[in-house]
Specification:
284 residues; flat; single chain; mainly alpha
């Protein structure tokens, strides 16, 4: 009787585990398949809308015309894309360096945080389109673009890292103090690891914002020729009523933003997947 009961329990457990495995497999497939299906539906609906209503391409081009414009203008668009992505990653790197450095400084001295954090908030709440013209008066084009993109990307890094450094377990802080750990030891072995998930969350936000800041700054700068980014290509195409080219440049910006988000998300997963609850795969 006991053997039959044990066998029944094992069979039930095996069935539950098999059901969970099937559920995980369906979720993994849906994670990639559903966005593709939605994209196909949107593109099909877009093409149908333009075709049935015979909308002129200078008002709303179909996806085929956008793709043709992307291929025809690939050389100029890819050069401009490289300018935009260079400014974006330089601004993001600067935001990480300054944001993390200031967060550590704020953590080491409460007086410094009370003195300077309000001015970081001022930078965050000031619209970049309002101060960009002033920046371009005092800085050349490349430096001005970098400053504008940095201002937009800087605050999420700073605020999230400060919050993370201040969120370490107070019991562990007391334990470090009991054992006579130095300030830098607490920062390295306790507060730093505690702040990592917060920093990575801010990095995902700042990655997209740095691209937005670079594009907005290019719109404000509004200069052409060599060294012009994708924003100028959009302006140039709008002046010439080359609407498919505008969509092609916008497509490159969107793809770049998605790539930045996926890259920062992958980095976050790789750094947190073995120990932090936000990245540990849950059963079900």
């Amino acid at each position: 009787m006991s053997d039959m009961t044990l066998g029944g329990v094992v069979e039930i457990v095996d069935e539950e585990e098999l059901a969970r495995a099937r559920s995980r497999k369906r979720q993994a497939i849906a994670r990639y398949a559903l966005p593709v299906v939605v994209l196909i539906i949107v593109l099909g609906g877009w093409h149908l809308l333009v075709t049935v209503n015979e909308i002129p391409h200078y008002i709303l081009p179909g996806p085929d015309r956008v793709f043709s414009a992307l291929v025809e203008n690939w050389a100029s668009l890819i050069d401009s894309w490289w300018v935009t992505i260079t400014i974006t990653f330089l601004a993001l790197s600067l935001a990480i360096s300054v944001g993390v450095g200031l967060a550590v400084l704020f953590n080491l001295s409460k007086w410094v945080e009370l003195s300077f954090f309000p001015y970081a908030v001022v930078l965050q709440v000031t619209p970049i389109v309002a101060i960009a013209p002033l920046i371009f008066i005092y800085a050349d084009r490349t430096v001005g673009l970098l400053i504008c993109a940095w201002i937009v990307a800087f605050f999420p890094i700073l605020s999230n890292t400060v919050m993370g450094l201040n969120s370490s377990d107070h019991n562990l802080r007391d334990l470090f103090q009991v054992y006579g750990a130095s300030r830098w030891q607490k920062l390295r072995f306790l507060e730093g690891p505690s702040a990592l998930p917060y920093f990575l969350s801010g990095l995902r936000i700042a990655g997209g914002l740095s691209l937005i800041g670079a594009v907005v700054a290019e719109f404000v700068a509004g200069t052409g020729g060599i060294g012009s980014g994708l924003a100028f290509r959009i302006l140039e195409a709008s002046y010439r009523l080359q609407v498919p080219k505008m969509f092609a440049a916008l497509f490159l910006i969107i793809v770049t933003g998605i790539a930045i988000y996926l890259l920062t998300s992958f980095l976050s997963h790789m750094l947190l997947r073995k120990w932090h609850e936000s990245a540990v795969r849950r059963e079900g």
